[in-house]
Amino acid sequence: MGEGSAMSDYVRYIDKTREYYLAEGYKTPYKWAHFEDIPFARLEKPLAQCRLGLVTTSDVAALNESGERERHDKATLIGNVYSIPFDTPAERLFSRNEHYDRYTTNLDDVNSYCPVTRMRELAAEGRIGGVAPRFHGVYTSYSQRVTMERDAPEVLKRCREDGVDAVLLTPV
Amino acid sequence: MIFGTARDIVEYVGVPRFVFTDFPLGNPCGRPFEPAMQREIIEAGLRLLENATAPAPTIVTPYVWSEDDSWKRLIFTKERPFLEGEAYEHWMQAKQKYRELKKENKI
Fold first, then answer.
1. What is the ipTM of this complex?
2. Is B92 exposed, middle or buried (0-12, 13-18, 19+ CB in 10 A)?
3. If you count residue pairs, one on A and one on B, with CB atoms under 8 Å apart, how many are there?
4. Residues in chain B, pLDDT under 70
């Protein structure tokens, strides 16, 4: 690497979690997904003519008028995939994901992990052609096979229905 | 195009486009309630989308979370357990559910 000082060095989560869970008594280290061949497609037209989608694993849900969690994630749920209208105001979106660094930060601003407002602004300004009618959430699975064979194809299907040219992906 | 804070994991998996911000897990699209920074991070991704002609090297945004970088050292340590109490219970329940579904050949 050799770039920057030790202070600027990023966290090695693969090593850190391996040691952490080994110390917790878990014998078999997690096997991270790894692909030799990386799929790639060039953007075919100017961004100002592109419709962008958003897919997140940050467990985002919407609150209804009375401040309760809305059920449309259930109504749209197939496997681990659900959808929420893109025009849902950011104030009504929240995440109860627990897999973030709670000692250091928070999930109080949905745009810090699911940038719906920022993307709507970019569309309003014409930097991008527009946003999809809905964005998609994927609850994380312990099974990489389920992700590959069931959930990812469902996300792709919905993105095609939405007519998007490119997609932003965000975890927490 | 992926926005993330766990550089080693995303690079190990292998993705076509990756914008990395060296922030704690939770805010891959910028610091909470700092829309200008969030805009810059998304914009870095848009430029990558426009310009990349092959799976691209990681784009690193210039932001530093804080002068004190002890969070990098302390995450996933006994001092700061990643999941505690209810969060730990939820994780165990999810794992148990997965085991049961697997046993029934449902996944």
1. 0.92
2. exposed
3. 166
4. 107
